[in-house]
Amino acid sequence: MNLAPGTKLGPYVVVGPLGAGGMGEVYRARDDRLGREVAVKIMSGAARTDPERLRRFELEAKAIGQLDHPNILAVHDSGTHDGVPYVVCELLSGETLRARMDGAALPVRKAIEYAVQIAHGLSAAHGRGIVHRDLKPENLFITKEGRLKILDFGLAKLTADEPIGDTEATATHARTGPGVVMGTAGYMSPEQVRGQPVDHRSDIFSFGSVLYEMVSGRHAFQGDSSVETMNAILREDPPEISSAKLEVPPAVDRVVRHCLEKNPEERFQSARDLAFQLEALSSPSSVSATHAPQGARPRTRGLKVPLVAGLAVAAIAVVSAFLLGRRLQPPPANPTFSQLTYRQGNLFSARFTPDGETIVYGASWDGSPVELFTARAGSPESRSLALPAEILSISSAGEMAVLLDPRFVTGWQRGGSLARAPIAGGAPRPILAGVQDADWDPKGQQLAVARAEGSHFRIEYPSGTKLYESDAWLSSPRFSRDGKHIAFLEHPLTGDDRGRIAMVDLTGRLTPLTEDFSSASGLAWSPDGSEVWFTAGKTGNVRALYAVSLSGKQRIVDAAPADLTVMDVAASGKILLARNSARRGILTGSIADAKERDLSWLDWSRPVALSPDGKSLLFEEQGQGGGRGYSVYLRGLDGSAAVRLSSGTAFALSEDGNWALTGSLDRRDTLTLTPIGPGDAREVHVDGLDITFGRWLRDGSGYLLLAREKGQPRLPWLVDLNGGSRRSIPVEGVVRTLAMRPDGKLLAVSFLDGAPALYPVDGGPGRPIPGATPADIVNGWTSDGGSLYVTQTAGAQAHVDRLDVETGRRASVFELSPADKSGLIDLNNFLISRDGSACVYSYRRFLSTLYLVEGLQ
């Protein structure tokens, strides 16, 4: 189908042809509604008559539609024209990696920079259950800004799909057609060559082939025919990179070899881990400033004509993780840091007043409740405003937006009531409940609000008008200086501060700006408004000050071996920066011994489950020591040394004590049965569910999970041992904790809002629990199933009661109050042994010092 200029495909007007691929034709088109040019891919005539190619075209659109990332080619729309399907995507300008290499090796540092971006892109796709299956230089596109994008998801495999049983392979540049192996000879994994089912580790093998080619200038596997090439993939190792007389560090060669292991079990097990290894190589001490080897043909480094045949398949999914070692700016001549606070405690917000000289901050000093203070540079004293609130924003007219009754809803997610208050003094006027954060527009007339709406989260402007809605919790909305955009933090895990920077305009159009960071907290617009400045870290809670442009170009503004949070940035260039000391620990106590024992291990220890006999604790390390994907440990309550079981997240211990049920931050629909002693781990896939909690059923028949399907609220689910049979248990409200009665017939559920209730496991309406209140958190059942252990907290104190579910009678079991209360912000994650003799819980300690910083750029 040749479309003439001026042809309309719905709202899109064809401008002219761009190119053609094996499955489609690509046209430049104009979207008159938004005044932008787009690329439109439409199926070619031959492909339209082939059901398999039509299925792949639809599969590609489905795969792309699941991905959302700043380095993912934006797919705007899809539809049909005269019965022919088409896909509308962002128009790219740049060149493919194949064209960039031009038959020669790249400088090692540049190759690693691209490799990190590819690895992050694969991680994004794998996190959505998508395996690319055709990764090669032709399908990797470098934009004129230097951002790398993964293209051509036409052969992508969704994990819910059955693998296609094809039997032949294509040559490197041959078009993929029906009846062939999914992939391209030279870049396929051994399992692809054999026609076996593949998972995400197949892409890691293909990645290794691409990285080998980037640093060596030659194919990792190449024979005189596709059959000989595939035979080499199965039986041979690629030639030593050093044999090409290239200056390639041994560490880079080791990464390549690890990717190219024949056995998937011996490769990197996730693209995220691979990216982490590559980022470690990006520092000047790890990779020397290697130049292109002698003999490499010189190449023009300017912009080339876009290779739209590669763009035609319009696919996606990469992270623009610019290497820190490459993006470090020279430090300003004389940056100065003036300490503003001297008391011991924590603060979570601070803002400049319109004059840029006075600072308002909210803090909880020396264990007292939070209140507002004012401070000025050069003065060690702060003045109390006698207002128990946190500061959210100060308008250009000097009116404050404050958060009354601020509290942690779950994890780092905070909430309270939004109020307006004059900065000169006076009582606040509450205007909206259930708010996470807010910011005045530049004119000081309306507020942009981040708030929860049931199980979803919204950015509203003005209040009540939805601009953006997400399953992820949203924080720190900040208006751009021109009032055209709102930047904010989007956190994929409820309560967890890992997340990315995104931006929405006033029409609701979303622009993701960064990849996910392990920890992200605090953002503001740069002095000139051209960048968003934010504090984030790639591992644990050590956060640096970053800047990202509106096109996604990222750099470091300032870094230190400390946890930093940017609070505000003035147009004059002054910055409010908090230096934090944070720790999460574990305490345990028993009825027999009033003395508590500290079971904390590394820097961020989170208790998860007690063994049935009450002698062992399963816990996670979520901070710097636990690594990017967290780590799972087992420790005796007697204080014996902890044993690391695996990377990932922890859920439960089996009834026989031989297995830990664990998970992964990258693959949220997968459970892993991790042996406590010798043995092999086994994965259980629960496709389509995003899992946040898990327990073994006592009868050993399966698992009780807290999970959600895409776009749906989190619900309890019952899943069989192999993950196949499953059903949800409908409950009303946002679930906080849950526990199944020993006989497996009743589920006790506590909610973020509202009192706990009991639900029949076989289905049916819930019923209230006599004597229960909204402050009660369900921790577990007594052994006889007649009572619940419930906890109520108040700051750094908590008490555990035994609550009879029929009569409502309460009996006190534990009073919990850590001896050292300095900087404690809450107690949580209470675990009670089945016999009620022992209690394990977590505390969070957070200490902050506020600085006024000048001279950073």
How would the blueprint of this fold be written?
Layout: E1 8-9, E2 12-20, E3 24-31, E4 36-43, H1 45-48, H2 51-65, E5 75-81, E6 84-90, E7 94-96, H3 97-101, H4 108-127, E8 130-131, E9 140-143, E10 148-150, E11 157-158, H5 190-193, H6 200-216, H7 226-235, H8 250-259, H9 271-280, H10 308-311, H11 324-327, E12 336-339, E13 345-352, E14 358-365, E15 371-376, E16 383-384, E17 389-394, E18 399-410, E19 413-422, E20 429-440, E21 447-453, E22 456-460, E23 466-470, E24 473-479, E25 485-491, E26 500-505, E27 510-512, E28 519-525, E29 531-537, E30 544-549, E31 554-558, E32 563-569, E33 575-590, E34 597-598, E35 605-610, E36 616-621, E37 631-636, E38 643-647, E39 649-653, E40 659-663, E41 670-675, E42 682-685, E43 689-696, E44 702-709, E45 715-720, E46 726-728, E47 735-740, E48 746-751, E49 757-760, E50 767-768, E51 777-781, E52 787-794, E53 797-804, E54 810-816, E55 824-832, E56 838-854
Antiparallel strand pairs: 1-2, 2-3, 3-4, 4-6, 5-6, 7-9, 8-11, 9-10, 12-56, 13-14, 14-15, 15-16, 17-18, 18-19, 19-20, 20-21, 21-22, 22-23, 24-25, 25-26, 26-27, 28-29, 29-30, 30-31, 32-33, 33-34, 33-56, 35-36, 36-37, 37-38, 39-40, 40-41, 41-42, 43-44, 44-45, 45-46, 47-48, 48-49, 49-50, 51-52, ...
Helix pairs in contact: 4-6, 4-9, 6-8
Observed structural traits:
single chain, 857 residues, Phosphorylase Kinase, domain 1, Transferase(Phosphotransferase), domain 1, Neuraminidase, 4 domains, six-stranded antiparallel sheet, 56 strands, globular
